[in-house]
Amino acid sequence: MMATPSSCEFPPIQTLLPQAGPMALLERVLSHTSEQTVCECTIRPSNLFLNPQQHVPVWIGIEYMAQSVAAHASLL
């Protein structure tokens, strides 16, 4: 397995994703290997997908996953 650089050694997430503006939901890459990329996001009150109960619907997880896949592909 390859050594994983610290998150400050990865390019800014905006350069890895095709999404921009409020649709870029991830904040940064935490770790990356040839088989796995772990990204981070923080749910804030300004989140585009917050519902009236101040939760993000579970189906948005698919978009978080898709953006993580995009970041993984960009890093490869």
Folded structure, characterized:
The structure is a single chain. The protein has 76 residues and is of the alpha+beta class. Helix content is 21%, strand content 12%. It has one helix and two strands. A two-stranded antiparallel sheet has the order 1-2. Strand 1 (28-32) and strand 2 form a beta hairpin. The longest helix has 16 residues, at 60-75. 16% of the residues are buried.
List the helices and strands and how they pair.
Elements: E1 28-32, E2 37-40, H1 60-75
Antiparallel strand pairs: 1-2
Characteristic key phrases:
alpha+beta, two-stranded antiparallel sheet, elongated
Helix content: 10-25%
β-sheet strand percentage: 5-15%
Largest sheet: 2 strands, antiparallel
Number-wise, the strands total: 2
SSE string, helix = H, strand = E?
EEH
* Continuous helix count: 1
Uncertain stretches of 5 or more adjacent residues? none
Distance between the termini: 15 Å
Query: Which whole number gives the mean pLDDT?
Result: 91
Overall body shape: elongated
Widest sheet: strand order? 1-2
Radius of gyration: 13 Å
- Structural class call reads alpha+beta
Q: What is this entry, summarized?
A:
This protein has 76 residues and is α+β, with helices and mostly antiparallel strands.
